[in-house]
Amino acid sequence: MSCQCNHTKESETERPEDALITSTDPSHPANLICELCRLFYSNGWVTGTGGGISIRSSNLIYIAPSGVQKERMIPENMFVMDLETKEYKRTPKVYKPSACTPLFLSAYTMRNAGACIHTHSQAAVMVSLLYEKEFKIANIEQIKALPKVTEPGYLGFFDTLTIPIIENTAHEEDLTDALQQAIKEYPGTTAVLVRRHGIYVWGETVWKAKVYNEAIDYLLELAVEMKSFGIPPHIDIGQESKYVDPKIYN
């Protein structure tokens, strides 16, 4: 369902560049960003004006702006940038560019991503407090939704998912160097956690990025729950009884 509501309608005066964000096609990036922002808001991943999303269409990238409540976003709010020149082809009349933009660009230029999602998921924040440098989880069915990245195919049930954790900064754009370094050091990752902040997830297409984000958030939430019972999320199958109160098995 596209977002054609007028919650945050800008001036009615159209400009030639507005053709870039005007379409009745629900799958158009400007419409999809609105739809996904509402979905992520309903999931509690992007409250207030936090978080962001960007979608690539050929050599153009569509970016949700800064300062807009995600559940009220409309296509007219979008920024459109040329990926090659890094110049804006279309800017909204009111809003500022997202501070996430250089991080989105990192996913596009370093991983050839088709979309990048940034959420402030509570599970992501909690996991960043429970692990030092990287998050690991293994032997969980949902891992199979995530790609191997360095080779064709997806992770298997017996594989270990590893996601690097970088330190937060006072300003979002200052995370860029650390995120790029994490991408280099972890060639198999499709996400980077930011301590006390949230997570960046990308994929080959917007729909794959959405699936990866949902699968990872499920695994992060599960890991927090496992930790609360004293179970390390990356242990081998059958080792749970070593960490859990024996009374639970009675």
UniProtKB/TrEMBL annotation:
Catalytic reaction equation(s): 5-(methylsulfanyl)-D-ribulose 1-phosphate = 5-methylsulfanyl-2,3-dioxopentyl phosphate + H2O
Main location: cytoplasm
Location within or outside the cell: Cytoplasm
Keywords carried by this UniProt record: Amino-acid biosynthesis, Cytoplasm, Lyase, Metal-binding, Methionine biosynthesis, Zinc
Residues covered by the Class II aldolase/adducin N-terminal domain: 31-224
Cofactors, names only: Zn(2+)
Enzyme Commission identifier(s): 4.2.1.109
GO MF terms, alphabetically ordered: methylthioribulose 1-phosphate dehydratase activity; zinc ion binding
Cofactor remark: Binds 1 zinc ion per subunit.
Family per similarity comment: Belongs to the aldolase class II family. MtnB subfamily.
HAMAP family documented for this protein: Salvage_MtnB_euk (MF_03116)
Name of the protein in question: Methylthioribulose-1-phosphate dehydratase
Source organism of this protein record: Cyberlindnera fabianii (Yeast)
Native organism taxonomy: Eukaryota, Fungi, Dikarya, Ascomycota, Saccharomycotina
